[in-house]
Design brief:
- The complex is a heterodimer of chains A (719) and B (157).
- With 719 residues, chain A is of the alpha/beta class.
- Chain A contains 18 helices and 28 strands.
- Chain A has 3 domains: 207 residues, Aldehyde oxidase/xanthine dehydrogenase, molybdopterin binding domain (Aldehyde Oxidoreductase, domain 4, 2-Layer Sandwich), CATH 3.30.365; 150 residues, Aldehyde Oxidoreductase, domain 4 (2-Layer Sandwich), CATH 3.30.365; 201 residues, 2-Layer Sandwich (Aldehyde Oxidoreductase, domain 4), CATH 3.30.365.10.
- The longest helix of chain B is centred in the last third of the chain and has 14 residues.
- Chain B has 5 helices and 5 strands; from the N terminus they run E-E-H-E-E-E-H-H-H-H.
- Chain B is globular, with a radius of gyration of 16 Å.
- Chain B folds into 2 domains: 78 residues, Beta-grasp domain (Ubiquitin-like (UB roll)), CATH 3.10.20.30; 67 residues, [2Fe-2S]-binding domain (DNA polymerase, domain 1), CATH 1.10.150.120.
- By secondary structure, chain B is of the alpha+beta class.
- Classes of the chains: A alpha/beta (719), B alpha+beta (157).
- Chains A and B meet through helix 5, helix 6 and helix 15 of A and helix 1, helix 2, helix 3, helix 4 and helix 5 of B.
- The complex binds FE2/S2 (inorganic) cluster (FES) (2 copies).
- One FE2/S2 (inorganic) cluster binds next to loops of chain B.
């Protein structure tokens, strides 16, 4: 239903003072690639009466309450906390006066996908700019309306008052002219004040989280609701065809309402979730799959099927520069498939509402508007007939942008003519989804001159965009090519984008180059960085990790490594890791991580620090543990334990984080987000090499790999 | 093939009469019949700890615990029984103070497990904490903050 401008304003509250915030489009996302998800913006819902640029709204209601509307959702990154910190301080109101409405497609404009880091940076900082402009607006309009000099006005708890006079005040809403006021802000511009950052605030959902009261999708229940679950097919859905279902054995389970093939999948619908799981273990199904010519090897598949997708960089003359180099080194690195593995599995609640004639879908999502269009396509109906209501997500990490659980729940609900809660099992989470952080094959060749300066580098990256290759080092002659694979699985953003794969290869390779020309890896980097600010960060981590000429420790099995990243606009990060390798068991212990970031102003330190530590721990998972078992046809990982997400025992005893916010000009917020994941990986890989003198070319680096490399693999000893 | 039976569950100090399949996991009875949705489903296989509850003081995985085994007079404590908004437990307060969560989905299980630990060992070392908590997974990686939150309670009280 398209609203008129007047209806829309009335729906927000006729007597309210309304601000439409336009956070400039080019700054909305902070990253250029969202894997498979197209970035075209969907049509708006409430805001479609007007320009789609007004991505967030601030509404001052009669009385003293303020409502904020944003299409961005809560994923655990603390967006609601950041908005609360910013808006309460920016408008001088108390948290109790503020209501934040997030991710309801009937109420909030489409603001693109919620990407952790960018959301806090762009929306948080954007709101700060907006609040400053709103303050100005309020002062000016009050001053004009009542003929009071603006410098004698001040703000307090939702009111404007005359300084020194506590009796005369005006509610913000009284300035309303019945029109929305447009506020345009550029979150990357500099403002002089840092005041709100000094007031740190703890997670606003904290009490609900620790008492179990916060409602995730799975915690909702509506009358007549049934549960649904899938039987996982043996291979990817594009190469399996469901032929027959035998539900003989499930008949005796009372609570089962239906066993049905829907969208090529076997679905069981039941009264209770345990009916569904029991049914799934009993139902039999046959799938047709093509015959396999030979065993598939994922690395070979990636190389064989790839075609050139993009030339990322092409500067200077690489071939000539390589010929004139003092040392040339060519290597190949491999990374594994990785998945998001949020602890909340994909879950959706879909119900048709007879009264409104609309579908309501409660979703755990990073992009409610995108989900709305997917559901509309699935149900072959108009988007305006769908309302997606985002609940807080139990983790997302890029996995809840274009995922299919919500449209599947709607389709099943449409079939069952009942509200459906669809829950993915852990196995589904590994085997039904098509989007993973891609495995990558990276061929890399570099040349260094006799002064230790890198003069040429060539990268061919298979099934990856080779992101993050451009920024860290100053190399005059570069050629970077990205090749696209041809397998049914898609590249996804998983905390850290595809910088992860590229930077593992580059940072390992840089250490190998340093070694070839006899330079210390820290020093080699100081010579070759593109930004002088990096040198300060390198010095910072070198000091904190207690870098010395001999890092080997008393038993001779310790090592120190370093890696660097430049992420987004101008976020710089350097991480140094200290590891200890047990030569007999192959166990790798990360003893210490020292991180130094130049990220501008830190918006809210408590949420930032827990986010950075989380990113470092995820990086440890990528480099030492996690791997999806897959070939070109299917994924076979079934259990969390097999997959290997990091645990308490993987946490380094010391994680030292230093913020340097004055190394670059301009006091802006540049955000943190996924960045710490990236250099954690390279620094640990390099530290392992420093410890035992063996370079590993693929991740994850496991105890088995260590034992094999050191010849301490008892099972395979040659006597 | 139904083993439905009437049973009494003692949860957070209250008795509840329920009618359920004896083999149904306790988790779903808590969530669907008693409306105690703070106990989470994260895997259903005993691997993540999101569904942890205390049964007679022991930490148990409710996703693998047949309801009938919990209906013989045992005292079941769920996250809702640890403390309420106005009356939080020391651990709950400390989790907030130390930002021991991001998305919060693992938090109920973490708090139950930590509560169980401090009951049996009021002064755990860092290694004791890691050992006791090691089968509770947090994908957001809030581990260091959780350890700090538990250590704070150990030190302060
Ligand atoms: S849900 Fe019980 S251990 Fe994961
Ligand atoms: S806080 Fe998100 S899983 Fe632990």
């Amino acid at each position: 239903m398209k609203m008129t401008r007047r209806q829309f304003l009335a729906s927000l509250g006729g007597a309210s003072l309304i601000f439409a915030i336009d956070i400039l489009a080019e700054n909305r996302t902070g990253s250029s690639s969202f894997g498979p998800v197209p970035l075209e913006r969907e049509p708006e819902c409430i805001a479609d009466y007007t320009d789609t640029d007004y991505t967030n709204w601030i509404v001052f209601d009669p009385g003293e309450n303020v409502r904020v509307f944003t299409g961005r959702t809560e994923l655990g990154q603390g967006l609601k906390t950041v908005i609360t910190a910013v808006v309460t301080q920016g408008l001088e109101i108390e948290p109790e006066q503020l209501t934040i409405i997030q991710g309801d497609t009937d109420q909030c404009p489409d603001d693109g996908p919620t990407i952790g880091s960018a959301a806090c940076r762009v929306v948080g900082w954007g709101f700060w700019h907006a609040c400053l402009k709103i303050q100005n607006y309020l002062v000016n309009s009050t001053s004009t309306k009542f003929g009071i000099a603006s410098d004698s006005l001040e703000f307090k708890s939702g009111k404007i008052k005359i300084k020194g006079d506590d009796k005369t005040f005006l509610n913000y809403s009284e300035i309303s002219t019945g029109e929305a006021v447009v506020i345009r802000v550029n979150p990357d511009s500099t403002v002089s004040t840092k005041q709100y950052i000094d007031k740190k605030i703890l997670n606003v959902n904290g009490i609900d989280i620790v008492t179990g009261a916060l409602k995730y999708v799975n915690d909702l229940k509506i009358p007549g609701m049934l549960y649904a679950g899938f039987k996982t097919p043996p291979y990817h859905k594009s190469i399996t065809l469901l032929e027959t279902i035998n539900d003989e054995k499930t008949k005796e389970i009372e609570g089962i309402k239906a066993v049905e093939g829907i969208g090529g999948r076997v679905v069981i619908i039941g009264e209770r979730y345990s009916d569904v799981t029991k049914g799934l273990s009993l139902v039999e199904a046959e799938w047709r799959t093509p015959t396999r010519a030979k065993e598939l090897n994922i690395e070979e598949e990636l190389r064989a099927s790839s075609h050139l997708q993009e030339v990322k960089e092409d500067e200077g003359d690489v071939e000539t520069a390589l010929k004139s180099s003092a040392v040339v080194l060519s290597e190949t690195y491999y990374t594994q498939y990785i998945t998001h593995a949020a602890i909340e599995t994909d879950t959706s609640l879909a119900a048709y509402d007879n009264n409104s004639g609309k579908w309501n879908v409660w979703a755990s999502t990073q992009w409610p508007h995108k989900q709305r269009s997917q559901i509309a396509t699935e149900l072959k109906t108009n988007e305006t007939n769908i309302r997606v209501i985002a609940q807080p997500a139990g983790g997302a990490f890029g996995g809840k942008i274009g995922n299919t659980v919500n449209s599947e729940a709607a389709a099943i609900s449409n079939f069952a003519k009942a509200p459906i809660k669809l829950i993915y099992s852990r196995k589904d989470q590994f085997q039904l989804r098509s989007h993973f952080k891609a495995a990558v094959v990276i061929d890399i060749t570099s040349g260094v001159d006799s002064n230790g300066k890198m003069i040429a580098r060539k990268i061919d990256s298979y099934d990856d965009l080779a992101e993050g290759s451009t920024f860290v080092y100053d190399i005059p002659n570069v050629l970077t090519r990205a090749f696209k694979g041809n397998i049914p699985y898609h590249r996804a953003v998983v905390r850290g984008t595809s910088y992860v794969q590229t930077c593992f290869a580059i940072e390992s390779h840089v250490d190998m180059m340093a070694n070839r020309i006899g330079l210390d890896p820290f020093e080699f980097r100081r010579i070759n960085v593109q930004y002088p600010a990096f040198v300060n960060l390198i010095d910072s981590v070198a000091e904190n990790i207690e870098y010395s000429d001999n890092n080997k420790g008393q038993e001779g099995n310790e090592g120190i490594g370093i890696a660097m990243v430049k992420h987004g606009g101008a976020q710089l990060g350097v991480i140094s890791a200290k590891v200890r390798v047990d030569r007999v068991t192959g166990q790798i212990e990360v003893k210490k991580i020292c991180a130094a970031f130049d990220v501008g102003i830190v918006v809210n330190e408590p949420t930032a620090v827990v986010g950075i530590r989380g990113g470092i721990i995820m990086g440890i998972g990528y480099v030492l543990r996690e791997k999806i078992d897959m070939d070109g046809w299917g994924t076979y990982t079934e259990y969390l334990g097999e997959y290997g997400i990091p645990r308490f025992s993987d946490v380094p005893p010391i994680i030292d984080i230093k913020f340097h916010d004055n190394l670059q000009p301009g006091g802006t917020v540049r955000g943190l987000g996924e960045m710490p994941v990236v250099p954690t990986i390279g620094s640990i890989a390099n530290a392992i090499c420093d410890a035992i003198g063996v370079r590993f070319y693929s991740t994850p680096i496991t105890p088995e790999d260590i034992k094999k490399a050191l010849g301490t693999d008892i099972e395979n000893l040659n006597f | 093939m139904s083993d439905k039976k009437s049973m009494i569950l003692n949860v957070n100090g209250n008795n509840h009469q329920i009618f359920a399949d004896m083999n149904e996991p306790l988790l779903w009875v808590l969530r669907d019949d008693l409306g105690l949705t703070g106990t989470k489903f994260g895997c259903g296989k005993g691997e993540c700890g999101a569904c942890s509850v205390l049964i007679d003081g022991d930490v148990q995985r409710s996703c693998r615990f047949p309801v009938a085994y919990a209906a013989a007079g045992q005292e079941i404590i769920t996250i809702e029984g640890l403390g309420t908004a106005g009356n939080l437990s020391k651990l709950q307060k400390s989790f907030i103070k130390h930002s021991a969560f991001c998305c919060g989905f693992c938090t109920p299980g973490m708090l139950i497990t930590a509560t169980g630990l401090l009951k049996t060992n009021p002064y755990p070392s860092r290694d004791d904490i890691i050992l006791a908590m090691n089968n509770n997974l947090c994908r957001c990686g809030s581990y260091s903050n959780i350890i700090e939150a538990i250590e704070f309670v150990v030190k302060e009280y």
